[in-house]
Amino acid sequence: MKFRSWISNSSSSVNSSPSLFSQETNSLSSLQSNLSLLTLPSVPSLQNLSPGNLNLAISTRCLNSLNPRNAHVTSLAMHNNLLYAASSNEVNVFELTNFTLMDTFNDKDSSSGSIKSVAFVDGKIFTAHQDCKIRVWKLTPVKKHKLIATLPTLEDQLRRFVFPSSYTNVRRHKKKMWIEHHDAVSGLTVNDHLMCSVSWDRCLKIWSGENLRCTESIRAHDDAINAVVVGKDGTIFTGSADKRIRVWSKEKNSKIGLIATLEKHKSAINALALSCDGSVLFSGSCDRSILVWEKEDSANYMVVTGALRGHTKAILCLINVSDLLFSGSADRTVRIWTRGNNQGQFCCLTVLDGHRTPVRSLMATAETGGSDGGVKLFSGSFDGEIKVWQIVVSSSSGSPMMS
């Protein structure tokens, strides 16, 4: 069962009446329960320590609840002290100093569909859409967002349309330019001046943030791609409904190359996250498990070292900040994990409750300044609510572990 299908069904409820939305949510919950009964990966659980074993204490506080104008938060992103919350047909922008709504923007084209992801390159804001396109925006001096381009740009299409090599078969008797996605764009990620996009059309594309051209496209998976992350060294990881993670390398002035395929999940992969140094990959799936992959010096590139378990339904989102892993699930909770002192040990520090519907998106940032340090976490759910959390992890003696 694809994560793609589940998200598509949930999107259809956004414009419904509250009662219909409630029925849809219950239906999704039932469906997700069935998905979660799929065979779990044959991977042992990592040793789950308690915070006391690590001499750690955690304090959590819900600072605020933000309610964008539209239900169904699909993606959260942060840039220049602004929080971008994407939804079914618009992006709401909040100032983080006082959590006020600064701007709301969308494309006038009503067919653009749900916004799946938001990214930032070279001072531009990129949004990924259900209608197979990527839109590019700029922030004006009066703090409003203005549409400046749609990818692929008309210029990029005109310079290629006369060449037969510019086209590829997308289905029988139908061709499109290889610079175009032909299904929903499900994810965006950025490294340096390049942006990667993935889609339910199974393709990974590379774009220049400077001239907005598509420089490369590759058929990356055998089913819809649901997640993409990129390491500081430029290594790209894609997760798909085909149950596989693929690892790609793009050297300077060369094409993308496949360097590894990671296979252990037994159902669709919905989310990926990298550790701060890029040596550990976390993958979340409909099977309720988070698999932990670590680099090794072999042809496999990474090996799975174990699974983090505790969620009762599908893992929908992951983010890693300051050695803390945050996981959001269809079970309506967020779990906070940290590594133990020895290899193969992890600790679930706490479980955050409060959302009434599945947690679809997470964003977190390590706070600087102040005596407590810590992490500020944002969690967005299908009913449109965004919760703002203050997370502080300290030693049992009371000294903060993060700054």
UniProtKB/TrEMBL annotation:
<keyword id="KW-0853">WD repeat</keyword>
<feature type="repeat" description="WD">
    <location>
        <begin position="352"/>
        <end position="391"/>
    </location>
</feature>
<feature type="repeat" description="WD">
    <location>
        <begin position="308"/>
        <end position="337"/>
    </location>
</feature>
<protein>
    <submittedName>
        <fullName>Uncharacterized protein</fullName>
    </submittedName>
</protein>
<dbReference type="InterPro" id="IPR001680">
    <property type="entry name" value="WD40_rpt"/>
</dbReference>
<feature type="repeat" description="WD">
    <location>
        <begin position="218"/>
        <end position="258"/>
    </location>
</feature>
<dbReference type="InterPro" id="IPR045182">
    <property type="entry name" value="JINGUBANG-like"/>
</dbReference>
<keyword id="KW-0677">Repeat</keyword>
<feature type="repeat" description="WD">
    <location>
        <begin position="262"/>
        <end position="303"/>
    </location>
</feature>
<dbReference type="InterPro" id="IPR020472">
    <property type="entry name" value="WD40_PAC1"/>
</dbReference>
<dbReference type="InterPro" id="IPR036322">
    <property type="entry name" value="WD40_repeat_dom_sf"/>
</dbReference>
<dbReference type="Pfam" id="PF00400">
    <property type="entry name" value="WD40"/>
</dbReference>
<dbReference type="InterPro" id="IPR015943">
    <property type="entry name" value="WD40/YVTN_repeat-like_dom_sf"/>
</dbReference>
